[in-house]
Automatic annotation (TrEMBL):
Lineage: Eukaryota, Metazoa, Chordata, Tunicata, Ascidiacea
Family: Belongs to the small GTPase superfamily. Ras family.
Substrates-to-products reaction catalysed: GTP + H2O = GDP + phosphate + H(+)
Source organism of this protein record: Ciona savignyi
SMART domains per UniProt: RAB, RAS, RHO
InterPro entries, A to Z: P-loop_NTPase, Ras-related_GTPase, Small_GTP-bd, Small_GTPase
Pfam families noted in UniProt: Ras
The protein's name in its UniProt record: small monomeric GTPase
Length: 176
């Protein structure tokens, strides 16, 4: 899938309300470790090489404190994270999507919704069906995971977003 793109370099932006676990998900993906306490006072950009579907992929991932227009224009794929114990964080995803649409009005928007903190199922206040319905409305995938649990679903979410970016590139190239 990645072979048919001009480059295996993919730019991702992880967005969501403060406290949903954006940084924890990124660190889990990059290192396999969980950070329980994390306070970010500024944006971070990570550079990472990985293998997806047998192809070497170079990623740049922005962990953004703010949703800056220049970052939105820079990114090719967006991971919209919400906390399953915080219904307001799910509503924030819809607001973020509207902002992304406004800033990137003429570009294809590639994104995935990620439910974080699924290890706190006993505290869950966001129904899976409610989030699934939003993912359908927003025309994006939806993955449940936990930054403090096994890294399988965290890895799947990032890898799947990269696959979607590669597919969007192919689709865009065919239109030209």
């Amino acid at each position: 899938m990645f072979r048919h793109t001009n480059t295996n370099h993919i730019r991702l932006m992880v967005v969501g309300e403060p406290g949903v676990g954006k940084s924890a998900l990124i660190v889990k993906y990059l290192t396999g470790r969980f950070i329980s306490e994390y306070q970010s006072d500024f944006d971070w950009k990570y550079s990472y090489q990985t293998n997806i579907d047998g192809e070497q992929v170079h990623m740049e991932i922005i962990d953004s404190l703010t949703i800056d227009d220049s970052h939105i224009r820079w990114a090719e794929g967006f991971m919209m994270v919400y906390d399953v114990t915080n219904p307001d964080s799910l509503l924030k995803v819809e607001q973020i999507k509207q902002r992304l649409d406004t800033v990137r009005s003429t570009k294809i928007l590639t994104m995935i919704m990620v439910a974080n903190k699924t290890d706190l199922e006993h505290c869950r206040t966001v129904a899976r069906e409610q989030a699934d319905a939003m993912a359908v409305r927003l025309s994006c995938g939806h993955v449940d995971c936990s930054a403090c649990g096994p890294e399988t679903n965290v890895r799947f979410a990032f890898d799947e977003l990269c696959r979607e970016v590669a597919l969007a590139r192919q689709h865009s190239a065919k239109k030209r």
